[in-house]
Amino acid sequence: MSDVVIRVERGLGRITLNRPGVINALNRGMVVEIHAALTRWADDDSVRAVLLDGAGERGLCAGGHIRSVHDDARAGGSESIGFWTDEYRMNAAIGAFPKPYVALMDGVVMGGGVGVSAHGSVRVVTERTRLAMPEVGIGLAPDVGGAYLLSRAPGELGTCAALTAAHLSAADVLHCGLADHFVPSAALPALVDDLEFGAHLGVGVEAVVARHTADPGPSALAERAPWVDHCFAADTVEEVLARLEAGGHADTAALITTKSPTALKVALEALRRARELPDLDAVLAQDLRVSSACLRDHDLVEGIRAQIVDKDRAPRWSPATLAEVSREAVLAHF
């Protein structure tokens, strides 16, 4: 069966990511197919809305198929740049889609999974949602327009999420503006049925979703906002760490120091620039420049090796410290 199942059911365009064994990780063929479907459906009056979900029980999407990026980078190739180009075009198409685009962000939603869902117009999370932009842990900066989303979260919560690569709960995701509705996972089958029936009858998507929403409870991230806003407003990663240590948040500082020093500095620069860029398309253009530069960095190969290939969780970053990462090296990524 195809890696992505695309069909139209009763006026609802359905996209199901279909690689459950790898939590529906995206490959190039999948993003090309999704983009093509969205292009067809944008002007098809018989398709009133789109619904995205993922096969299996573990989550919507764990991101891009980064083992292939590792192999490409080791070989000095450029296939990954082609993948990212197609992926970011798909992200842009999702952000600009003229009809309701409903994303069921159930379970694991990471990296490319955020890109395929959080740019949609109707984003649904559940109690099982665990969202993260984990790129700095593999020597990459948040891409797929993630910097656009995180830079527009309240205060510095998005900066915190980017530099720590922490997992966000449904309540955190809603508070940060990365989703719109909380629906219990047990109610998702009924929601899908109602969306299909509603699309067939021309009923508004928001009204259908509203019948299934519930209260996700408080956001732990929101409760930490006062000290997060102070610490992560710093101009450099070094100053962020200093403020965290001084404020009694050594655990958060320690988490950041496990990430690639180069990726951390590039990520902070990317978020600060994204805040000033006018729209998603401009941030995606920046993402392509940054990701292409990271492909030639030592840390991308090493980070994927440590986390995915050998799984020893002991990356040997180079440069090994923040102090060794020059401003010139950071700017070269842009």
From TrEMBL:
It catalyses: 3-hydroxy-2-methylpropanoyl-CoA + H2O = 3-hydroxy-2-methylpropanoate + CoA + H(+). It holds the Pfam family ECH_2. GO terms for molecular function: 3-hydroxyisobutyryl-CoA hydrolase activity; isomerase activity. Its EC number is 3.1.2.4. The keyword Isomerase applies. Keywords: Hydrolase, Isomerase. GO terms for cellular component: cytosol. Residues 13-334 form the Enoyl-CoA hydratase/isomerase domain. One of its GO terms (biological process) is L-valine catabolic process. This is 3-hydroxyisobutyryl-CoA hydrolase. It comes from Actinosynnema mirum (strain ATCC 29888 / DSM 43827 / JCM 3225 / NBRC 14064 / NCIMB 13271 / NRRL B-12336 / IMRU 3971 / 101).
